[in-house]
Design brief:
5 strands; alpha+beta; three-stranded antiparallel β-sheet
Length: 155
C-alpha cells in the first residue's frame, strides 16, 4: 500500500502535507469508532467527565485552560463540565497561590473513588476481550497500542 502525499496550500506562508484517504485509514477510523462506542457503554458517567477525572489523576491539579486544551474543547465548555463535577463533589476549585486570578482544579477523594470504579468497569470488559486473544495477538496489540498513541498525539 502506498501513500501519495498531496500538498495543499492553506495560506501563502503555510503548507500542509495531507494523505489521500486510504483503505488502512478508513478501516482504522471505523474500528476505533466501534471500540469507542463499545467502551462508552461501559461508562456510568459521561465520557468527558471521566476523561477530566483521568487527567487530574494522572497529571495532578491543572487550570481550566490546561484541561480544555487536553480535551480539545473551549474553556467555556470545560467550565461547564467542571461545574458538574464540582456539584457532584468529584473536584475542587482553588485559586492559584502564584496567580490569584487563575483557578486550579484538583481531584477529591470521592472523585478518585468514582474514577477507580469507572476504570474497573471499563477495563474489565476490555481485559476479558484481550484475555481471549492468543499470546501472539496480545503482543501485536501491545505493539499497535504504542503506534496508536503516537498517531493520537499527532498534531
Amino acid at each position: 500500500m502506498t501513500f501519495r502525499p498531496i500538498i495543499r496550500t492553506l495560506s501563502t506562508s503555510t503548507r500542509k502535507l495531507d494523505f489521500e484517504r486510504t483503505p488502512l485509514a478508513t478501516d482504522l477510523r471505523e474500528v476505533v469508532g466501534r471500540m469507542i462506542r463499545r467502551l462508552r457503554t461501559e461508562f456510568a458517567m459521561p465520557l468527558t467527565q471521566a476523561a477530566v477525572l483521568g487527567h487530574l489523576d494522572r497529571e495532578g491539579a491543572q487550570s481550566i485552560g490546561e484541561l480544555a486544551a487536553r480535551e480539545n474543547v473551549r474553556p467555556q465548555s470545560m467550565s461547564q463540565t467542571l461545574a458538574e463535577l464540582e456539584a457532584l463533589g468529584l473536584v475542587n476549585r482553588a485559586s492559584d497561590a502564584a496567580d490569584g486570578r487563575r483557578i486550579i482544579i484538583s481531584l477529591t477523594d470521592e472523585g478518585l473513588a468514582k474514577l477507580t470504579e469507572e476504570r474497573a468497569r471499563r477495563d474489565g470488559w476490555l481485559a476479558q476481550a484481550i484475555s481471549e486473544l492468543t499470546p501472539a495477538e496480545r503482543q501485536t496489540l501491545a505493539d499497535a497500542t504504542a503506534i496508536l498513541r503516537r498517531i493520537s498525539d499527532h498534531a
